[in-house]
Amino acid sequence: MLEGIDTLVYDIQDIGTRFYTYIATLGYAMEEAARHGIRVVVLDRPNPITGARVFGPLNDRDGEFTAYHKVPLVHGMTVGELARMFNAERKLNVDLEVIRLEGWRRSMWYDETGLLWVNPSPNMRSLTEATLYPAIGLLEACDLSVGRGTDTPFERIGAPWIDGRRLAQRLNSLNFPGVRFIPFRFTPSASKFKGQECGGVQILLVDRDAFDPLETGLSMARELKNLFGERFDFDHVDRLLFNRAVLDKVRATTGPTSYRLLWQKDLEDFVARRAKYLLYD
Predict the structure, then answer these.
(1) Do 14 and 75 touch, CB atoms closer than 8 A?
(2) CA 136 vs CA 99, 165, 216, 237: distances in Å
C-alpha cells in the first residue's frame, strides 16, 4: 500500500480523549512510515475540549486502538503535540513535520475558535458530547446504552434493567460539579438494545469548566454497580480505562469518595513530561 509514497499527511480531527481511536491511527501510521522511510506531515487541529484540561489515570498497559500510548484519559494535547511525543518516547525516529495552528490558545474550547463544528464521527455531534465523552464513553464497553441510535449519543445512558428515577436521584444527591441528571426513557434505533425501551438518565452539562469527567464517570460506574448489582458488568469499565489498580479501588468503595488522589502524582508527572512537546501557550 505504501509503494511509491514519499509523504503521509494526517489531517483528522481528534476530540481529546485517549480511547477515541484517531490518535492510535496516527501512531500506527507513524510506525509504518518510520519502517519505510516515509515522511509524515501532521496538519494540526484544535483540541475541542481545550489543551489545558488534563484528567484521569494513565493507562497501565498498551491497548491497541484505545490506549496506544501512556497518557491520561483526557490528555490536553493536540494531535501535532501527540505526534511529537509518540516520535520521541516510542523512538520512532520518523521524519515528522507538524503544520502548526494559527491563533489557537490552550484555554480555548472549540466554540471559541470561530470554526464550524463538523462531526468527526457519526455519533460525535456536538461539543457537549465531546465534553461528556470521557465520562460516558468510559462505560460503553459495559452492557449499557450510551445513546447510540438516538439523537443525543453520549448525553444519556440506559438499559432495560435500569430504574431511571432511582439512578437520577442517587447521582444528583452526589452533587457532581458541572452536571445534573434527569430520569429518562428511550428506545435506541441502533447499537445496544436496538428496539428495546431503556430506563436511564439524560446528562445535562451545566458548567463545562467545573466538570470533572473521570470523577463523574467512575462514580457513575460505582453507583450502577451498587444500585443494580450484577446486571452492571463493572469489570468491563477497564476495557477503556486501562488501569486495573484504579478500578479495583473504585470497586472497593460503596459511597462517595475522591478518586483523583489515586492518580494525582502520575498526572503531575505526565504534565511535566509533556511540556517539551507542547507547541502553544
Answers:
(1) no
(2) 32, 18, 9, 11
CATH topology of domain 127-257: Aspartate Aminotransferase, domain 1 (3.90.1150)
Please name the helix (run of DSSP H) or strand (run of DSSP E) that holds residue 166, with its range, or none: helix 164-173
In contact, 202 and 156? CB cutoff 8 Å: yes
Q: Which residue has the cell 490528555?
A: 75
CATH 1.10.230.10 fits 7-114+265-277, yes or no: no
Annotated domain spans of the chain: 7-114+265-277, 127-257
Q: Using one digit for the tens of pLDDT, what is the confidence trace for 106-152?
A: 999 999 999 999 999 999 999 999 999 999 999 999 999 999 999 99
Q: What angle do CA 48, 49, 53 make, to 5 degrees?
A: 140
Strand ranges for 37-169 from DSSP E: 39-43, 55-58, 72-74, 96-99, 156-159
Q: At what angle do helices 22-36 and 79-89 cross, to 10 degrees?
A: 50
Instruction: Please tell me the distance from the alpha carbon of residue 251 to that of residue 253, in angstroms, as a whole number.
Output: 6
Task: Answer for the pair 240, 140: CB distance below 8 angstroms, yes or no.
Answer: yes
CA dihedral 70, 281, 211, 243 (to 10 degrees): 10
Q: 0.90 exceeded by the pTM?
A: yes
